[in-house]
Specification:
Blueprint lengths: L4 E4 L3 H14 L2 E7 L6 H5 L2 E6 L10 H10 L4 E3 L9 H9 L3 E2 L4 H8 L1 H10 L7 E3 L3 H11 L3 E5 L9 E3 L5 H16 L4 E5 L4 E11 L4 E13 L2 E7 L6 H18 L2 E11 L4 E8 L6 H8 L3 H9 L16 E8 L1 E2 L5 E2 L2 E2 L2 E3 L6 E5 L6 E2 L6 E9 L2 H14 L1 E3 L5 H8 L2 H4 L7 H8 L5
Parallel strand pairs: 1-2, 1-4, 2-3, 4-5
Antiparallel strand pairs: 6-9, 7-8, 7-9, 10-11, 10-13, 11-12, 12-15, 13-14, 15-22, 16-17, 18-21, 19-23, 20-22
């Protein structure tokens, strides 16, 4: 009997990660690539490789018909979408099902619920999880009313999508009209829907998320939390697990909120429930649910010893969940640095080019999730992530020390990276003492306290 075969509908480090997990399970992989990605590390590691289309994502990694056709023609029974691209598209999950392919992710119905942040907020409230004060704004006049009720500052957010697009901070009423118009236009351009809503802005906020694993029968467990407060324009840069900012009572409450949502949704596979923690008020506010593998998942893997991608695949293929809540133990501390091909001298703009030197140091307690190699042509068409550096220690200071050594001893040349910025951040008293909030990095860069 031939081995099962899985189609990898993604690229970069996550494609490598999925292929490695499949190899550990004895599953063959078919990797779909764009014309710009034929010579990648993922292409070399996959069992088979097929070209989906042109370099631009719309011709390849977002081309639903080409992906499904390629998966069927190569004898695959399932598709792993990774993160980004089609991983949260309900229409793609439905198309997979209609073509007899297992979509390794949430159901189309769950994706539709969670893809609309207004519906997700309402669902969280329905199961007793608090959401930040705010509401929908179908018109500028309604935005003025909601804004007047909330007070300033406030956030305008796109109801669909994420990544900071369609999101605007409004400091006072006089700025509302322009910000609302721009946010709605950005949302429409990026996500095909200009619906936006308003939330109260939390100045001293930490971004903390809880990793969930579920089997689709209501059996859900959490694998602790991650803190992702170091962000630049709503893009995470440094993540860690667990969060040293939470007192035990807040940690227990946040975990219980995440499980309420996961059980209410009947999650199968992986999901991450994201929260804002108001440091000043000690309040927990629901943000959103991401029903897929997260970029920052390795820090959870390191402190729990559980291969999340492997578990995700097994659950999607119908295996029963082997783990119970009592099996989960958080051991030590992990820190992840996102190394990117971005130019610190030019507001972290993308810096494609040829990787002339790539020599990550081989250090104990440090894991490198990457698709880099010397001579790799880093393309201009996709995200700027080069590698994730995951450092482990018996406590937070030792994990930070290992992360610092790893980024300091890394030898990389040929294109601009954010390595120097990462080194400088790790030396900051705010990082060392974990007093950062979600706006900390942008404020530091504006003040020149940290050099770009």
């Amino acid at each position: 009997m031939s081995a099962p075969r899985l189609f990898v509908a993604n690229r970069g480090e996550i494609a490598v990660r999925v292929i490695d997990a499949c190899q550990s399970l004895g599953i063959e992989t078919v990797l779909g690539v764009s014309s710009a990605d034929k010579d990648t590390l993922a292409a070399a590691r996959a069992t088979h490789c097929v070209t989906l289309g042109g370099a631009r994502a719309v011709l390849s990694y977002l081309n639903q018909g080409a992906i499904v056709h390629a998966a069927r023609m190569t004898g695959c029974s399932s598709i792993h979408p990774g993160y980004g691209f089609l991983s949260e598209r309900a229409d793609f999950a439905r198309l997979c099902g209609e073509n007899g392919l297992i979509f390794i992710g949430a159901s189309p119905e769950q994706l539709e619920t969670l893809g609309d942040k207004l519906i997700a907020r309402a669902f969280a409230q329905s199961v007793g999880v608090p959401v930040s004060p705010g509401g929908p704004t179908s018109s500028l006049e309604q935005a003025r009313i909601v804004g007047g009720d909330l007070g300033y500052p406030l956030l305008i957010k796109a109801a669909f999508g994420g990544g900071g697009r369609g999101m605007k901070l409004v400091e006072n009423a006089s700025d509302l009209a322009d910000a609302w118009t721009i946010a709605a236009s950005e949302a429409a351009a990026a996500f095909g829907d200009g619906t936006v809503f308003i939330e109260r802005f939390v100045r001293a906020a930490k971004h903390i998320e809880v990793q969930i694993l579920g089997d689709g029968t209501g059996h859900c467990i959490h694998l602790g939390e991650r803190e992702c407060s170091v962000q630049f324009r709503y893009q995470k840069i440094i993540e860690e697990a667990p969060s040293s900012a939470l007192r035990p009572e807040y940690r227990t409450l946040m975990h219980s909120y995440a499980l309420k949502i996961a059980r209410g949704l009947n999650i199968q596979g992986l999901a991450t429930v994201e929260f804002l923690f108001d440091v000043d008020e000690g309040a927990i506010w629901f943000l959103e649910v991401n029903p897929r593998i997260q970029v920052e998942h390795p820090v959870t893997e390191v402190v729990t010893g559980i291969d999340l991608v492997r578990e995700q695949i097994l659950l999607a293929l119908g295996e029963k969940m082997r783990l119970t809540q009592d099996d989960i133990r958080i051991d030590g501390h992990a820190v992840e640095l996102r190394l990117t091909a971005q130019d610190p001298a030019h507001e972290l703009k993308p810096s494609p080019g040829v990787v002339r030197t790539w020599r990550p140091p081989q250090l104990g307690g440090v894991r490198w999730d990457t698709h880099m190699y010397e001579g790799y042509h880093f393309p201009p068409y996709y995200d700027a992530l080069m590698a994730k550096i995951i450092a482990y220690g018996h406590d937070r200071p030792s994990a930070l020390a290992r992360a610092t050594r790893a980024i300091t001893e890394l030898q990389v040349s040929g294109l601009a990276t954010n390595a120097a910025l990462l080194r400088e951040m790790l030396a900051s008293p705010a990082i060392i003492g974990n007093s950062v909030t979600t706006r900390w990095l942008e404020n530091q860069l504006v003040k020149g306290a940290i050099q770009q």
